[in-house]
Amino acid sequence: MSLFQIFNVSGSASSAQSQRLNTVASNLANADTVAGPNGQAYKARQVVFQTQPMGDVGAAGVRVSTVVEDNTPGRRVHDPKHPGADAEGYVTYSNVNPVEEMVNMISASRSYQNNVEVMNTAKNLLLKTLQLGQ
Amino acid sequence: MRQGHDGLDASHPEGLTMQRLTDALDFQSKALMLRSERQRLIASNIANADTPGYLARDLDFSRALKEATGQAAMAPLATSRAGHLGAAAGARAQPNLLYASPSQSNLDHNSVDMDRERAAFADNAVKYEASLRFINASVRMMLDAMKSHNQA
Question: What ipTM does the predicted assembly reach?
Fold first, then answer.
């Protein structure tokens, strides 16, 4: 029955979207962290989605293939009084762009909602199919 | 001579009647299977709305239904050489899936149009339910026809 597979497909998509939301949350949480003792500030992370075939032809789920780090240099602010300042008095912040992360968050949340709605519809149709002939 | 669905001989009057009764059910159940197939395809498209490089797929419902009910011949595989294998009629397990043409170009080559998919999903769900109701109604009709006249 093809309708049962909708739960696998949409479930994998919701799981991938929630992982995306998770990276957005850690990026936003670390938006203002500065470079640690090793001189490396937090790097923004992004998930990469990939289609995952699910048995039958046409059933395509989603999985997170990798999580990539953004390698753009972090924001440098001149603040010699800051404990994390380097020899030249610059503090390196993480390279998280909060605007990009907010957009990412809204997009992930909308996609998640779409998949939940798909699962609800499939559930209703299956329940009605169970009552067939009664 | 055509055999009915349950091995009933169509040349006998009872066999013919039974076949007429189940023909309507057969058609609707095939439609129902194809509807659920299409529902799964659209769900896959919605699931992959953010996957780079994913191409949206869909099936031509009326053509698939015609093929499933035997009203249209499936295109046979061409055999141009002696060693080629020709597919028998009705051998294809899957209806041919088509790729949806993207309405807007996209930098990550994803061709899912969310508005179109959502609309198709809702439309397909309603039509699935319609098929369910048709089946329910014909089952009820058949049961009514089988009832004895002195039964309420």
Answer: 0.84
Distance, in Å, from the CA atom of B1 to the CA atom of B9, rounded to the nearest integer, reads 8
Q: Is residue A11 part of a domain?
A: yes
Q: Report the number of distinct structural domains present in chain A.
A: 1
Low-confidence ranges of chain A (pLDDT < 50): none
* Residue A104 sits at the chain B interface (C-beta within 8 Å): no
Sign, CA dihedral B56-B62-B67-B68, equals positive
Cross-chain residue pair A49–B129, CB shorter than 8 Å? no
Our CA-based measurement puts residue A116 at a distance from the nearest CA of chain B, in whole angstroms, of: 10
Distance separating alpha carbons of residues A116 and A119, to the nearest angstrom: 5
Specify the 3-state DSSP secondary structure of B62. helix
Nearest to B53 by CA among B104, B112, B9: B112
Question: What CA–CA distance (Å, rounded) separates A128 from A132?
Answer: 7
Q: Is A127 on the interface with B (CB under 8 A)?
A: no
Is A83 among the domain residues? no
Model pTM score: 0.80
Q: Do A51 and B54 touch (CB under 8 A)?
A: yes
What is the spatial distance between Cα A47 and Cα A39, in angstroms, rounded to a whole number?
25
Q: Output the six-digit token pair for B135.
A: 């089946």
A101 lies in which domain range? 2-33+44-71+96-130
Instruction: Single out the residue of A13, A114, A3 nearest to residue A60, CA to CA.
Output: A13
